Amino acid sequence: MKSLGYLIACLAVLGVAGAAQAQPADTLVTEAVVLARFEEARALAVDPQGLLYVADAGRDAVVRLDEDGLLRDMLGGPGTLEGRFSEPADIDPTNGLVFVVADAGNSRLQRFSRDFLHLESLSVGRLQQDERTGRGQPTAPFGQANRLGLADGTPIAVATSRANETFAVEAGRNVVLKWDAARRFERVIGGFDERDGRLVAPVALAVDENSLYVADRGRAAVLVYDHFGGFVRTLAEGLAREVCAVTVFGDEIWIVLPERLLVFHRRGRLARVFDVRLGEPLVDVGRRGGLTYLLTPSRLYSTVL
After folding, report:
1. d(CA 179, CA 148)
2. pLDDT per residue as tens digits for the range 89-103
3. SS3 of 38, please?
């Protein structure tokens, strides 16, 4: 028999799901063109040249495809050496010249050139909590934790700003870490001292020229910060308990749920809602020109939305 706590939790989830469904969808997507197949896809990104990058944790690899889904390159395989991965969770192709992989199982971010040349491995180390303030601080500077045996963080999402600042979700402490353009550690975002901006269960992030967007499954919302970590507001509050990803396309923020896409204007107004029924839950979305790319754990689709 299920516990009373379990049943209460289920009812709470159903209540939030009902609230999300109260907003009717503008479009129902039930068919799309299959471009590629994967073992356990976790994340999708499109670079400025239109190339598609997929983090496939099932193969511990990063796959690069052209806009039609044809394989261009594959990097990785299981392991701890440079260019190898353990459960890659996210990828950011930045400006198309460098891409960064959240190598979750190896507690590091790996940076590569467009030609797949390994540039550096950046360890994501343990955070220590100040018992008086609750504020997290790294036990070692970015890039040194591995040498000190402290590389036990779990980076599950990564994004780079136009100023070349690096942001990563560290799932072990449920915070976002930020490093400056020289990859020196700068601050913790969303920690215990943030109050309204405190993160509970962050799973994904995105950045634009002014803001940092953090999808938080525990708060059923996307939290918006400035690049200095100052909390600004929430988006989709109460509608995003199962949020998988968040990304920015032009003036729009796209929030990915297992069977729904919520599109918000930057000022916070809900613009469009798409229901997606492809037989598998969505994990990420990408856009290029008039095409929208939909990623599930086993397939990459394209459609027009």
Report:
1. 19
2. 999 999 889 999 999
3. coil
Distance in angstroms between the alpha carbons of the first and the last residue of the chain: 44
The pair of structure tokens assigned to 17 is 């799901």
Please state, in angstroms and rounded to a whole number, the distance separating the CA atoms of residues 34 and 30.
12
* Strand-pair partners of 53: 45, 64
Which positions ≥6 away from 40 have C-beta within 8 Å? 56, 57, 58, 59, 297, 298
Q: pLDDT grade, residue 289 (50/70/90)?
A: confident
Q: State the CATH number of the domain containing residue 133.
A: 2.120.10.30
CB 302 within 8 A of CB 288: no
The whole-model pTM stands at 0.86
Are 159 and 151 spatial neighbours (Cβ–Cβ below 8 Å)? no
**Helices (H), strands (E): how many in the chain?**
1, 27
Q: How confident is the model at residue 126 (pLDDT cuts 50, 70, 90)?
A: low
Number of domains in the chain: 1
| pLDDT (average), residues 131-156 | 50
DSSP sequence for 123-142? E--PEEE-TTT--EEESS-T
Average of per-residue pLDDT values in the chain: 87
Task: Decide if pLDDT at 150 tops 80.
Answer: no
171 vs 126 pLDDT, higher one: 171
Domain interval for residue 71: 4-303
